[in-house]
Amino acid sequence: MKGIPLDARVRCSDGPAGRSTCLILDPIREVVTRVVVYDGGRPIELERVVPVDRIADATHDSIHLDCTRDELRQLPTFDSVGYLPREDDAGTRTFFWPFARPEAVNLPLEHERVPIGELALRRGADIEASDGHVGKLGELLVDEECRITHVVLMEGRLWGRREVAVPVSMVEDAAEDLVRLRVDRRAVEELPAVPVKGGVR
Questions:
Q1: The domain containing residue 149 runs over which residues?
Q2: Distance in angstroms (rounded) separating the CA atoms of residues 37 and 23
Q3: Per residue in 141-172, pLDDT tens?
Q4: For 92-109, what is the mean pLDDT?
Q5: Rounded distance, CA 154 to CA 124, Å?
Q6: How far apart are CA 48 and CA 65, in angstroms?
Q7: Among 113, 129, 119, which residue's Cα sits nearest to residue 31?
């Protein structure tokens, strides 16, 4: 098993490339399909969608890609941003994207390019047992074919900052900011703490 961390340092074959911001998964097949990487570049900061097969290695706090930074910049962006049209006093409709006038009052429209039928999960998403909140999402553990085997729960109120790997069989369903378990808090509390740090095990 290996962990694919969220909010982790990302490196390309030729140097640092930013941070992972979320994982995109197919909830039906329970497979991670893509990782979203925020490049932190200037003057334009973008998130790039990276196929999971470009991950060469991963540890608890870093992801190594098998591409160069230039190749990463050629991958599709995650966010699509546009602006609503605005009518001026003469009734002329003007679209201000991508070159917006500073004085213009525009309504930005932004959406994430998540493939139909798939789901984007971010670090810190709430995890709820059948009888209440138990913690936050830390990372996903996957097998060699990127099938999800465990959801790593962190910062649970029941045990402080202990991390627990919850088997995917205990997951009822998931949304962008919430993972629901089919077991109660007692069942989660009885799971052993695991040494998630260290990447591949």
A1: 123-189
A2: 9
A3: 999 888 999 999 986 555 556 788 999 999 99
A4: 44
A5: 8
A6: 13
A7: 119
